[in-house]
Amino acid sequence: MDLFAQNCFSPFMTAEKARKTFALSGATYDFYDLDPFSSADPSPATGRPATPGTDRRCEIAFAGNHADKAAATAVEALTKEGITTPAPLPASYTETETTTLLAARRLNPRRTAIVHVGTRNGPQGTETFMLVERLLPTNDQN
Fold first, then answer.
1. What is the pLDDT of residue 11?
2. Largest CA-CA distance found in the chain, in angstroms, rounded
3. Does residue 141 lie within any of the structural domains?
4. Is residue 67 in a domain?
5. What does the pLDDT read at residue 141?
6. 24 located within any domain
7. How far apart are CA 126 and CA 10, in angstroms?
8. Are 33 and 15 contacting, i.e. CB atoms less than 8 angstroms apart?
9. How confident is the model at residue 139, as a pLDDT?
10. Which residues pair with 106 in a beta bridge?
């Protein structure tokens, strides 16, 4: 959970850093950044295909049901990073019965991040996932 909080909101995270950081944790991860905020090279989607309408994903998953603590950790990380302004949740993101947190937050006037935390069936049984995806820029200035 702390690895997600400390790394997934960083504009300096790259696929190589994700591999090095998350591989040692025992968590599974999925990362891409097609349009980095930093001077880093783009990182293509190498896990699941890129979600339509996004240009970045950082996700970790780990064994067991720790969704309540994971959601609290994600909210704390968002607050620490100053990502606190609510944004409309796109219709393409929907809660499931195992969702603990699904929220949209403004990164800036043209960018929104979607944070999703919950549980799902994994290779070893129930796993907790923590996901943040960055939506493509919009011209919406609200």
1. 85
2. 44
3. no
4. yes
5. 44
6. yes
7. 28
8. yes
9. 58
10. 112
